[in-house]
Amino acid sequence: MINKFTPIQAKTLLSHVKQPDSWFGLKYNMNLYRGCQHQCIYCDTRSECYQIENFRNEILIKENAIELLRKELSSKRVKGTIGLGSMNDPYMPVEKQHNLTRKCLEIIAEFRFPVHIITKSNLVLKDLEILKKINKIYTAVSFTITTADDELAKILEPGAPIPSERFKAMKKLSDNGILVGIVMMPILPFIQDNVENITGIIEKAHRNGVKYIIPSFGMTLRDRQRNYYYKKLDEHFPGMKQKYIRKFGNYSPCSVNNYSKLKQTFDEHCKNYGISKRIIPYKKNASEQLKIF
User: Fold this and answer.
1) What pTM did the predictor assign?
2) Among 245, 194, 246, 241, which Cα is nearest to 217's?
């Protein structure tokens, strides 16, 4: 359990996303915190390449984020979707006290930029009215769902709200006109790579107003991330680590078993329910074009 929270001064906030971004439809990206309270056992952010040394023990809070965002948005000449949630969840429990995400959304609404939020938390509902305001331009909220099984999720994503609570939040957002989708990644080999898991996610997505699902059938395993994940496998799934070692060795991309069958199942179910396999991206409308001139 993380109990250390450290304020820091960030030098910049918004980063440009390499174009074209066909996965999430982003032009800009920002993270308001470093570290994550959700502590998912598979999280790639533990990898050394991200240089977050105290990922398990500390949350860094960018206390000057509001001032930076206002300054940076005021200088942007190209309007594009701002993403929240790439390196950590913008709706971790710490957000209840600091409200950095809410305050930044208010600025985004003021500057009339589109936004795409990626989260595992129903805490996003606290900002529903602001999201509705931004939605006059464009709002998308994607919930990460790797399993529809609450009990399994408690093991894999111990600090995050259970999937059933996320599905309820999806329904609430969708009922209020917000574009809602699912980021179905990672799908863990030997644990989640079965037809029942994939179809269960899609069926609940359909019932709760989801318009798109962005899938990735597999996971990465690198250095510190691999070490932590294997430790948790030994703790919760005895013998599972040996399966990973035999199949993947030290190879980082770890694909699911029966990929073709799972992909076919996914494609067929999404087609049957009218769910897109890509996000519906922001497009500048005619009235916004006129304002430029």
Assistant:
1) 0.94
2) 194
CB atoms within 10 A of CB 260: 8
Structural domains of the chain, count: 1
Q: What is the DSSP letter of 190?
A: T
Structural domain containing residue 85: 10-282
**What gap in Å lies between CA 35 and CA 5, rounded to an integer?**
10
Burial of 291 (0-12, 13-18, 19+ CB in 10 A): exposed
- 178: tokens are 């917000």
| Domain presence at residue 99 | yes
The model's pLDDT over 141-173, given as tens digits with 9 standing for 90+, comes to: 999 999 999 999 999 999 999 999 999 999 999
Helix (H, G, I), strand (E, B) or coil at 216: coil
Question: Is the CB of residue 127 less than 8 Å from the CB of residue 105?
Answer: yes
Q: How many residues does the chain have?
A: 293
* H-helix segments, 112-249: 128-134, 150-156, 163-175, 195-207, 223-236, 240-248
Instruction: Give, in degrees to the nearest 5, the angle at Cα 209 between 177 and 262.
Output: 140
The domain spanning residue 110 has which CATH number?
Answer: 3.20.20.70
- Eight-state DSSP code of residue 217: -
User: Residue 249: which residues within 8 A CB-CB, separation 6 or more?
Assistant: none
DSSP 3-state of 8:
strand
Please give the single-letter amino acid code of residue 277.
K
